[in-house]
Amino acid sequence: MEIDSSAGNNGEATVRDNAEKSRFEIEIDGHRALVDYRISNGVMDLYHTESPPALAGRGVGSKLIRTALISARAQGLRVRPTCSFVAAYLKRHPEFADIAE
Prior knowledge:
alpha+beta; Aminopeptidase; globular
């Protein structure tokens, strides 16, 4: 499933929920960034984020996390930010505090 969360990210690419691999991913200029998740007991655990150096400084990681959080909210899930990047994002974005563990 593709999810558009391009607000504030110039819409250069669309994040895809690759449910088969339990990860959100985006491909830009031949480089793939991703955030892995596990869903159990009503909680989406975002446990690993990966973005290649070629995509650094472009907001790709933030776009992935925002999309994952929007998806979790739409599914009625809470979010566990096991990944430190996700935890830092949540601290900067209190609009997602209602779904964070």
